[in-house]
Design goal:
It is a single chain. The protein has three helices and five strands, in the order βααβββαβ. It has about 100 residues and is α+β, with helices and mostly antiparallel strands. It has one domain. The radius of gyration is 18 Å and the shape is elongated. The termini are close together.
Length: about 100
């Protein structure tokens, strides 16, 4: 990415190539989950999971909670776009994976 990354403001990124390391893939996925639209969807799914999908049943004389797995909404793939509200706290994370991202 030839341009500098601003410390504040909204920035849209697109994944230009797949990360070579698992840690870079995790960092990009974490940054993608910071998108407000994605956060709303994940919160809605979590509420539904708590209300409807978790099962309570007796086991060994006590109530047992079997929790449903969380939905993996984010996929790190070439061409995926996400918008971040940049803050000084996440600038270093973005810089660590900027070779795999391009600004839109």
């Amino acid at each position: 990415m030839a341009t500098t990354i601003p410390a504040t403001g909204k920035v849209t990124f697109q994944i230009s190539k797949l990360p070579s390391t698992p840690s870079a893939k995790k960092t990009i996925a974490r940054l993608m989950r910071m998108n407000p639209r994605t956060q709303r969807t994940l919160s809605r799914l979590a509420d539904n999971r708590v209300k409807n999908l978790n099962e309570r049943r007796p086991r060994a004389g006590r109530m047992w909670l079997t929790r449903a797995r969380a939905t993996r909404l984010i996929q790190v793939a070439v061409g995926e776009k996400f918008t971040l509200t940049m803050t000084p706290q996440i600038v270093n994370d973005v810089k660590s994976v900027e070779q795999f991202l391009s600004r839109v």
